[in-house]
Fold each of these.
Amino acid sequence: MDLKYVQTTCPYCGTGCSFNLVVKDGKVVGTQPYKRSPVNEGKVCPKGTYAHEFVNSPDRLTKPLIKKDGKFVEATWDEAYDLIAQKFKSYKPDEIACLSSARVSNEENYLLMKLARGVFKTRHIDHCARLCHASTVAGLAASFGSGAMTNSILDIAESKCVFVIGSNTFEQHPLIGRKIVQAKLNGAKVIVFDPRYTPTAKQADLYASFYSGTDVAVLNCLMGEIIRNGWEDKEWVSKRAKGYEELKATVLKDDYLPENVEKISGIAAADLKTAAEWIGTAESSALLYSMGITQHTVGVDNVKSTANLQMLTGNIGRRGGGVNALRGQNNVQGACDMGALPVVFTGYQKVIDEAVHKKFADAWGFPDGICEPKNGYEVTVMFNVLTDNPGELKAMYIMGENPMLSDPDLTHAEHALEQLEFLVVQDIFLTETAQHADVVLPASCYAEKEGTQTSTERRVQMWRKAQDPPGEAKVDWQILSEVGAAMGYADQFPYQSAEEIFNEMASLTPSYHGMNYERLNRPEALHWPCPSEDHPGTPILHIGKCSHPDGMGVMHPIEWKPPAEVPDAEYPYILTTGRCLWHWHTGSMTRRSETLDNEVPTGWIEINTEDAQALGIADKEMVRATSRRGTVDVPAKVTDEIKKGVMFMPFHFKECAANVLTNNALDPIAKIPEFKACAVKVEKITEEA
Amino acid sequence: MVTKGDMFYTWAADADVLKKGECGGAITALQQYALKSGMVDAVLAVKKGADLYDAVPTVITDPAEIAETAGSLHCGTLLLSKLVKDYLDNNKTAKLGVTVKGCDTMGLIELAKRNAVDMDRLLLLGVNCGGSVSPVLARKMIADKFEVDPDLVHKEEIDKGQFIIEYEGGHKGIKIDDLEDEGYGRRSNCRRCLYKVPRQADLACGNWGVIGDKAGNATFVEVCSDKGANLLDAAAKAGAVATEAANPKGIEIRGKVEGAMLNLGNKWRRKDFEALASDLWGTIARETGRCIKCYSCIENCPVCFPVADELKGNSRMVTSGEVPPNPMFHLRRFAHISDSCINCGQCEELCPMDIPLALFSHAVRTEGDTTFEPKLGKAPYTN
């Protein structure tokens, strides 16, 4: 008779909830609450309740696969490593690109970063943060000098006004949604602006639907109202902010008067005024956003505008305030922190900074040096280069990512991958992307390894091993070390444990410098920055001063620009995309979780009742949605809970993949695609001859 | 010869157990004896995890490891009943010793009524429980109300109506009533609980009524079954524990403590249920309106018996994937557990949206108990 609990951190969203995995006879068989977690107190969302269900799926990858004559053949690890080493040695550094993963640990991201820059010597490394919060990293860094969520999750419950724009918190970060509820029970006003009447919107004191892509106009309008009424925090603005006069001149333009913004956004002028008053006069006001703000060609502008509003009202460095950029994936914060980005090493130390470059080169000790100190390509640029300049990039190493379902304009993404001469994919399932690979390496899931991950509130928490990986599958850091060794750099990858990798990373990373496994094994763990071993960590950033060298916050005057593609006569509707509570991104884990898959077995397109009537479409009817990039057949969900003229599709489902339709137009700074707005038409499917 | 109904002061004979255990370490010694003597094959109990706010269930087969479970953790709000059903009763042969609070006991009774656990194979060592405090709230309470760093606390107890902490450099007690009036203190289901002495376990153990020189050094044990009598008898004969008849004055005091706790429970019932009655449908609609359908209330309920696949698919009234779900999602659960909710509070404590689910189902149960004949027979406990 045995029963073992292994306390660990959830592998899904960026909230950082903990639970126990129940282990019997060496296998994970269930989850149980971990009530001591300060983040979630034992409570979990549906994905957490059933987070064990995919772990021992029968189709987990258990052996390395090598593609021969178009078919995968099982291989030994040595055969796979030999082939990888032989191929990668034959390419020049600039011909190789790596995609790291927001799904794996900090240690593993650090190691792929080291493999890319030290072994392959390429400057091209990125990961899917490009597709979710690249604009946050760029926008908040420009505003505050640090590109992360400013406050902590627990702090949201202390707020007196919670303004949610571009986040369906109840479905995407449910245990942060709880903090909104707690704030509300403590007397806070809750404002939700969203094109859809989401479960989050249903809890709001003030809800308004608006057209996707009009965020800057809305935020400028709120700031204009606040200034006209004298609700701005004059002390904050005068002592801590730069650029106030320029911002003021912009937001006070007639274009941003409530009556004019009503026409652009679809939010009634009265609601805009109410929101401005609540935000402007609250003792503290927290702004929560997510992909609704970031996934636009104006993503960085949107992010800077949220920062403008929070600085204007003195809600930076204040309890219950902040720009709370809710990071999507379990470890997307960590993957960025680990330097799995084309412009930085760990802790956002710039690759073009020669002193930083030398520090890493010296510490790693590669006898033949590391990549040149130049910025590399973003994932979206890599894919464009593949299609637009064939032959420039030849080989790619992808760990735990599935761009064949997650990238915009999937036809383009597939075409790009087909240009590669050699593709290695390291994953736990044979995903849509892995099917394109030349070598597939069977990896481990969260339940099978030690390591750390960093949640949206910069809290660094442990994963703990509950069972062995299936078959011959290996833990990811071990695979990366062995690839490094196969390439001839065994001395640079001598690791016997994840902890050794963490310690090496922390020694090179000021914001993680004071962390070690002993400290992180406390239930409270630590928030970065944590510069020394006696430092308690930093739940709230920018108290007293911002992170720019001069300590000031920077306000940016921003003009509203429409999305890259707007409705016209041929494609008359705005399509926006997102996730649902039951599934995770490309569904490789959740669609293999029986309970979650039962609950929501396929995708849909949400159509406003009036639009459906005009189109002659009934609820649940299979319809054809088309954009300039492609066509998908998808069941209609006819509802009053979406704004007229706007349609919504979840992107989890390959059989009706929303990203066949989405637009690969990029934000000029962050290179994030505009997943949240493109133009589509929807038609009845008529009998074909 | 020990017989059902006897009451003893009991303490461990082993010096080490005496030191590690609380109040004489009787439970630790009895579990150890049960395991050593083969009366049970394994023991399910709770041990301290990261700190005293972290209670971890553990299954022990080596008697030497029993000492890890010594002592009480009032911030452990676990329910063990469903663990027995889901993970430990499946080989249908092993005998299991379990240390149980009132809610664990009631949960097992309800499971046994439904043939989901076999009571003949369980040896239940009951512990009196005046209620428990959720760990994160306990830390906040200690920081805010006691003004002590919760990490510095090395012992907590609930005694004589006070929550008492010991920490480096001192100890402090605050009246539970005062804490609870400000939203701290015990879980709300615990406040309403009327099952403080688990007399349906095999032994009911606690410190209430231990007076004189034995105060703090012995456990009051009430023998509640023949199985319990056998264990105590054999353990005493084997020299694992020492016993003496409980002091009659102590028995009287124990009765008074229990009575005071029940009065307090009734006071909270009145308060909670009357407030709910004032706007019953409105409250239920408002609170369940933020449900995210995580199934925690079902998965963690000791008396929920879902038809596995049916529950998670479409029904006529509850559409799958819909959040918040149709109110029938909750209504059918309340109906399902209407005559068996034991008010263990797990549904409420584990609800990610803080819906007071235990309040609703406990109200249904208690009102039902006063109105209808229970279909599965009258429960041997009162809650």
Amino acid sequence: MKRTFPWHIAVFLAPAFVIYAVFSAFPLIDTLRLSFFTTSDSGAQSWAGLLNYHTLLGDPNWSEGFWNAMRNNVKFFLIHMCIQNPLGLLLAALMSTKGVKFAKAYQTAIFLPTLLSVVIIGFIWQLILSPLWGVSEKMLGWVHLQDFFAPWLGQEETALYTLSLMSVWQFVGIPMMLIYAALIAIPDEIIEAAYVEGASAWRIFWTIRVPLILPTLGLTTILTFVGNFNAFDLIYSVKGALAGPNFSTDILGTYFYRAFFGYQSQIGSPTMGAAVATMMFLVILGGVAVYFYFIQRKLQRFSF
Amino acid sequence: MHSKNILRSAVVAALLAAGAAQAGTLTIESWRTDDKALWEEVLIPAFQKKYPGVTVKFAPTAPTEYDSSLNARLAGGTAGDLITCRPFDKSLDLYKKGQLEKLNGKKGLENFPASAKVAWETDDGKDTFCEPIASVIHGFLYNKKIFKELGLNEPKTTDEFFKVMDKVKASGKYTPLALGTNDQWEASQIVYTSIGAPYWHGEEGRKALINGKAKFTDAGFTEPFEVEAKYGPYLAKGYSAQTYADTQNLFASGKAAIVAAGSWDIGYYNQNAQGFELGAFPPPVPKAGDKCYISDHTDLGMGVNTKSKNKEDAYKFVEWLGSQEFADLYTNKVTGFFSLSSHTIAVKDPVAKEFLDWRKSCASTIRVNAQILNRGTPNMENELWNINSQVINGKMSPKDAAARLQSGLAKWYKPAQ
């Protein structure tokens, strides 16, 4: 019997495949390709092998900035991991406990900043923290802590942490929602059975609920990782592409921007920019690979 | 039915061809979003009066996005016919890539002095690729009301400058100097390259750096760092997080006595200054009797896109940009931008006139790093922003600042080694 080619499958797959190929796969592959070229003064591109990577990692003019951006990006990610995600878990746990009044209202309020433009978030927080007309110093004064006030966004030691916390404030709604959805999906019977057995609420949370939502916690981790290593907009809108003071808030996104587009009199180089973008891609790919290999596989086995 | 369709498309094609042949449309690329209304309501109508039938569209992009989006449009072949040129290397780069037309011998250019054209010439001075439009002058603006109340006079020397600020500080009512380091560029462009000019003797020092005869570690280039390192106590509290917009608000609301500014700020303060008159003084000189120097920076030019379909009209426009009429309109309508042409122009705004009059009493120079020195890695402009902000923040000593600039330059620039 002759089987006809399943055309309908190809037809149904085509739109997604075409969109993915044109807007995602092709630019990615072309970026990889571009990173092996170099641009001359006249704008012509020629094959250069690994020259761009050699410059990026071997020439102190480039590598110092690159590793500084990498370090800052790791800090940026760790702050999100240590504050945003536990906070999201805590909020989700509180909202999913029975009998919390106005849970929906809180959810909406906490999720709302996620919907706002980063430019607005940056602007609002810059105003709140402004040493000239911000309200933060006055509010600290109400609890007699005004001596602790400092221009946090302007100091080398504190600027990156301040920006990270602004970002945490904005995005804490996402892990909260994801974890909340996972928590309420746990069948009531399991919780009730544990309750009948005499387990305390604390014990139920740590030994029943948390293990059951581990895959979701893993998912939020990986989303945070990818999001943080691609971050750019908040830093750019608050500190500009030069990410001051003294590059203390420079992350891979802003570093890439300067390399690719140039900044002020620094002339951008698409090929050098592509090399930076490829390094970012490799970092993210590495992180995601490690996660899937060592963690997600175990979690899957665990939950089924 | 079928033949009807063919006929219809033929008509459409003919109409399109006619539209293209009629030409007469010019699009201007620019970063001056602030001047959009002015171009559309004053400058373009004035041009059209002279050259009827040419439609001109002013299509600006935000300053921070301009260079990257212009590059993308030029590469994609969708950029406008006329390109507003940044000074020196940014535009030279476009010319080398074949994206700007050579303007040698084009009408209009003869109305500009050589010093104005330098910013848009190849290094050997043979080819010109943009026509100069305007420059900005850096200096200090002050609040006349506060100066009168405290009995202060315009400072001439650096010592007097600090004495004036001491008195303002002692009064306890006002911030002596409005300046922030959050955005970083002010520290370089309106502080170091402006107050430094009298110390390195303007053009003399700038050219000596390019020739390799002077170093950033020389006294003339280190002393300005020492001056700005003393600014800290006179600035508003938390100035390291103060943005440029904060600075503008602080001074416009009458809470600061002096602001480190550029002539482009005059328009803003004319509109927003609350209940006080503006005054201006040039960068103070090191010692009484020293010659004064001002940073009179060539900031804007106009070039023609090589891929323009309407070069003939574009050249007409460029010619008009060199006319007395344009120089007059531009200088008086865009307050704080001064025409670079050799026509004599009567400036109506009193503060802008004062800035322009400094050209007579002081020697003009441009930003110290603008020509050639920005070409290497580390990029000198970015270095200057970063280093000057750190010096004002008190995080870097003047000596270290000068040493770092010099070593950064020596890494790639042979004459400096």
Amino acid sequence: MSGKPADTLLKAKDYKSEVKPVWCPGCGHFAVLSATTKALAHLGLPQKDVAMISGIGCSSRLPAYVSVYGFHGVHGRALAVASGLKAARPELTVLVAGGDGDGFSIGGNHFLHACRRNMDMTYIVMDNEVYGMTKGQASPTTSPDWAESKLTPHGPGVPSFNPAAIALASGATFIARGFTGKPNDLAKLLVDAIQHPGFSFIQALSPCTTFRPDQNDWKKIVRPFEQEATDDPVEAAKRIHADDGMSTGLLYQTKVPVWQPERSVRAQIDQLELGFQV
Amino acid sequence: MSDELDPGQSSHTLSVAITGSGGSGAVTAGEMLLIAVANAGFYGLMGRSAGPQIRGGESAVMLRAGVAPVECLDDRFDILIALDWLNVSRFAEEIPLTRDSLIICDPEAGEIPPDIARHGARVVELPLEALAKGIEGGRTNMIALGVLAELLGIPEEAMLTVVDAKLARKGASAVVPSQRCISCGYNEPKPQQLRQRLPRIKDRPARWNISGNEASGVGAIRGGVRFVAAYPITPATEMLEWLAPNLERVGGVLLQAEDELASVNMIIGGSFGGVPSMTATSGPGLSLMMEGLGLAVASETPVVVANVMRGGPSTGIPTKSEQSDLNIALHGFHGDAPHLVLAALNIRDCAFTTEWAVHLAEALQTVAIVLSDQFLGQARSVTDPPPTAPAGPGRRLAQPAAENYQRYTLADPGGISPMAIPGTEGCLYTADGLEHNERGTPSSMPQDHQLQLEKRRQKLTAIDGGEHWAEVHGSGDLCILTWGSSSGAAFEAAGRLLTMGRPVRVVAIRLLSPLPEQRMLDAIDGAVRTLVVEQNHAGQLFHYLHSLNLLHGEVRKLAKPGPLPIRPGEIVNAILEWI
């Protein structure tokens, strides 16, 4: 973690709203809430200058629980709302939160283009490999043989989606994986992600205690990446494909110009209208 | 058109069609002719017909010039000049001719196709292509333009000046051959009796030469829009192409989105950030946006959608006009979702109506869908400068450190609650598409749902569109009700009927939802026979007005799908057949 909070700055609890989460007891998302408030407090960001945007799903309830400006939109479109907000209000710190279904299935196209567009925002996906709010269906990151859903009684039967690989291929400039069993490490990743100039993506492994009790075992297999982050996309791709998806930490970070249109008034409307006169 | 009835004539207008295959330069020639006509002091209208192909399809321009404002195409064309006959049958129906019409064509281009020849129009053969080949770098379209300029009585020098101005940036290598072609076509001997000279006009007031799509862009910027996100789609793209550089000049941003799902949600984000925001699209895009627009209604985030209609459903007829998106604009939302629907009545009105829509959406913190169509969007008009819309009160913003701020408070009469923009001290909240309580916290309580539904309905019913809700002209017990681009033909039909001693009132509706019902009832009071005119198959306005129980007396509909425009003569005939 870089920088030190001054005494005058807000504490983590100041970034927590009074709204009670709808999450199940033991849900991994509580740790994302905690990591978010810690990261914001660490960075000392004024609440009024932070906006958290989300779509639909258990994890997308996060904005209401954080004491900043929030927008809880429709399923899959959080990155689009965030991109519009950032284009219109570049001085705001824009955070986007959601789940694996919201971000990689219904919102998949926006994920590709947000990575490619490289606007300065942070996207944290709480990945529990299941649709929780609709009571336990397979998501794009569910393994092909998971047969616990009535909707896919034989398992989804198709290979799962590799978020880090897709992010890399789409041009994301900051790719990390965290685990909600390690909330302090997750908070550190969030601090780095927010400070990264450009589009930063964190896949937070966040167990679903209700529909994926098997994920209680994640704490036994999650471990840090063996190497420091790379800025070489070829090396990053090798590491992503050699990994089982359970290594955590910053995987890839590179500096690419941020896309942020300049806004300056150079003409008035009547000057534009001159072009139509005959 | 029935032969027994006289559809009437419009005095002092002249209609010219230039046809060719895609890439033949028909549009370029038409644009130059329109400028020359404008310079000579006339009002003008130039519609375009194009196939879906980029090159090698069909292309036609339909130009009408007059001494009074021209808002629709005429029933027939005075002159058709063919650059070639390739694929002309695809739009032959769009260029009605009579025995009095004049066809100018090149005998080397082959026989006149039966679809064109069947009208029995007079024919003049000129060696257009051979003349062009005689000039280095010469093109047939410029020969044709010279021919037309001479027939219409536009001075040769004036025509050459237009070419110079239009092609100057391409350099002398473009200007010189074109000018030589113009002079060649101009001086090519033609039978004297064919001339259809426009009258001379002494004073030429300042006018605009603008397309509907450009006018919509002007209206958006006038209204304060400074963020646009959109996905390219025919026939709305030109609005975006005009907005991209011009928004930038006034300190705004245009973002090309990955799809329409993104564009609508991006403008919701921009507007949540406090910047008046808009997108432009056409039917398929509007269909994709409906969920996002419901979010804007529920979260009370003002956004404007400029929807340039084309033939539907599905991909339909992308390059041709139709007024068939009224139903989706009015009723396309799930849930009870009060919002605004407006329609521009002509090219010039695209500016006024779009600007007004921005003001209304901002003031009411809701969605405004503005309907225009391919004809209005892609046609050019030589018109009086468009008026500005009445300024609204603007968006009601929360004051910093408002005590116990509640975004969706019910405390304010009228239902319009102050909106806090990120960056505002002490007013943190989360906007939500989930039903919510006054604070914005998600709620499925019956009472919260009832109260928030009432809040969102109330703020719309409180508005009064004033006199701008419609253009109401004329009087009498005959009434024409219409909307959008059919309005031009309706007003012209009423003018012709008046000269026949049949006064007709026309009500062309601009604010379709919420429709000011008392104003509507006042406008149609005393009407014994009402004809509802619109360019779609189902009669969407007809059924909408019935659903509101606003139609009384005898009512008929003249509902005709695109791509053929509704022409004034058809409306005249429909009235004459009825009475």
